[in-house]
Amino acid sequence: MAVLYVILSWTVMFLLFLAFIAFLSFCLYMKHIHNKYDHIPGPPRDSFLFGHSPSFLRALKNDEVIFDTFLEWAENYGPVCRLNLLHYVVILVTCPEGTKEILMSPKYPKDYSYKRLSQLFGLRFLGNGLVTTQDHELWYKQRRIMDPLFSSLYLRGLMDTFNERAEKLMTKLVEVADNQTEASMLRLVNFVTLDVIAKVAFGMDLDMLKNKSVFPDAIQKCLKGMVFNIRDIFFQYKPKNRPFVKEVREACRLLRTTGAQWIHDRKTAMQNGEDVSKDILTQIIKSAGKEESMTSEDEELMLDNFVTFFIAGQETTTNQVAFCIMELTRHPDILEKLKKEVDDVIGMKRDISYDDLGKLVYLSQVLKETLRIYPTAPATTRDVPNDIVIDGIHIPKGVACFFSSYVTGRMDKFFKDPLKFDPDRFHPDAPKPYYCYYPFSLGPRSCLGQTFAQMEAKLVMAKLLQRFDFTLSPGQTFDIVDNGTLRPKSGVVCSVRHRNDKK
Ligand code: HEM
Ligand SMILES: *[C@@H]1O[C@H](CO)[C@@H](O)[C@H](O)[C@H]1NC(C)=O
Ligand SMILES: *[C@@H]1O[C@H](CO)[C@@H](O)[C@H](O)[C@H]1NC(C)=O
Ligand SMILES: *[C@@H]1O[C@H](CO)[C@@H](O)[C@H](O)[C@H]1NC(C)=O
């Protein structure tokens, strides 16, 4: 017994000693990292070990938009601003030249943080799908297969679906107006965009405005989980978070099993020789390879891309339209000008054509200005594997660079009086912003769905402006919530009236 006790205590001592050595080595390593990068300007660290992480956690806890903190830092410490997160160093880059050099080049892959999007609390989420894959070859292979579905020729063919689904929203709004009730524009627009992506990407009829659906909630859950997962590495281990983590896992499972079901149905249809449309689902199946040689990784990759398009294909567009409506409620002059343009271009017509959309120039400006102040996908990061000089500052290799259109879009340096909503900044004759406005990101990894999204946003806005007046309900704020994508916090609840009703 005594012998056992001695052995045990020696073992414990030895382990403690090892832990101490490990801790000491980590501290030395930290010191080394600090020495290597501290010549780069940046805000004071909250702590030696954790760096600026405590600031991140504070913002997260207080439900603040972390990008406002980044904006403040960029204003105070300049275009190249260092942040320490444990032993990671992240450089917030806001100068146009640095932005151009890194984002436009295929040399700089998406960084480690995308790994934290591929998994969600131990479950595979976006995996190696088109948004999250870091591997250039795997990305290129997928992107090439998807590209044809986003050509203008193909997109023209979607106008019927866009029109038809948006009409369902109009029917709903007629009801809201007739009943003289209020409605959350964020929620209603989300129904249309989900309807559209389900139909054109996967050939499914959700008819969201009629059926109650579990999807909007599940998507919010996953995205919110993603925010916690990426900013607080210990989140899932804290007992108080257990119920939320469980809900997120369930939501994630729901999206993936839905994908598996829809893919299965589609494959069965194909095997039965049915005439299936050449849509995103077809391409997802195609990119996974031949049925005979399909590995379980191929199967998972299909689900990755299913979830990727299901989320990326509607979430940010919804938020953009909702923010746009929100801003218009406090800019009657801009609203009047827009209505006039819509009346001139489409009049009373129900079916809006692709060419009509091209003529809605002022509406384009308004939507661009919306994304300047509210870039719904606010940031992107790149790994920088080599030494680099940005704005005259030497940056040794081993950092990630962080780019945010939210930050640059709100800097006085690039946009005079930045919080003023002014669509004339994007007047066709105005100078184009130079690498300081990139709500769809830039370069090879920029948004595949940009044109798709702007067609949809314009079409929904045009129909709305054509037929309705809307007023923000009392108690609604103009605040932003960071739910993975940026959303209007209170959902843009409006009362809606028919346009010709005079009151
Ligand atoms: C207003 C609407 C939208 C905005 C603001 C937006 C913004 C973005 C941004 C910033 C990225 C880069 C993400 C990153 O660097 O991590 C991105 C990528 C992507 N987006 Fe969008 N997006 C929108 C709509 C859409 C739509 C409608 C689709 C599909 C139908 C889509 C599909 C994608 C895909 C597939 C990627 C990954 C591209 C790649 O890495 O090759 N997006 N989007
Ligand atoms: C409008 O009123 C009708 C009848 O009271 C009701 O069935 C319907 O759900 C209401 N619609 C909305 C959008 O409030
Ligand atoms: C929605 O309703 C339609 C018919 O009204 C039905 O065919 C479809 O399966 C429903 N979808 C869901 C997800 O419940
Ligand atoms: C943000 O996400 C949370 C958690 O899923 C959800 O309860 C909330 O409604 C979302 N906010 C908006 C504006 O969608």
UniProtKB/TrEMBL annotation:
Enzyme Commission number(s) of this protein: 1.14.14.25
Family as reported in the entry's similarity comment: Belongs to the cytochrome P450 family.
Binding site for heme: C447
Ranges that cross the membrane: 6-29
Keywords of this entry: Cell projection, Cholesterol metabolism, Endoplasmic reticulum, Heme, Iron, Lipid metabolism, Membrane, Metal-binding, Microsome, Monooxygenase, Oxidoreductase, Steroid metabolism, Sterol metabolism, Synapse, Transmembrane, Transmembrane helix
GO term, biological process aspect, one: cholesterol catabolic process
Principal subcellular localisation of the protein: other
GO molecular function annotation: cholesterol 24-hydroxylase activity; heme binding; iron ion binding
Pathway as given in its UniProt record: Steroid metabolism; cholesterol degradation; Lipid metabolism; C21-steroid hormone metabolism
Protein's name according to its UniProt entry: Cholesterol 24-hydroxylase
Record field: catalytic activity: cholesterol + reduced [NADPH--hemoprotein reductase] + O2 = (24S)-hydroxycholesterol + oxidized [NADPH--hemoprotein reductase] + H2O + H(+); (24S)-hydroxycholesterol + reduced [NADPH--hemoprotein reductase] + O2 = (24S,25R)-24,26-dihydroxycholesterol + oxidized [NADPH--hemoprotein reductase] + H2O + H(+); testosterone + reduced [NADPH--hemoprotein reductase] + O2 = 2-hydroxytestosterone + oxidized [NADPH--hemoprotein reductase] + H2O + H(+); 7alpha-hydroxycholesterol + reduced [NADPH--hemoprotein reductase] + O2 = (24S)-7alpha-dihydroxycholesterol + oxidized [NADPH--hemoprotein reductase] + H2O + H(+)
Coiled-coil intervals, chain numbering: none
UniProt key word Oxidoreductase: yes
GO cellular component, one term: endoplasmic reticulum membrane
Localization annotation: Cell projection, Dendrite; Endoplasmic reticulum membrane; Microsome membrane; Postsynapse
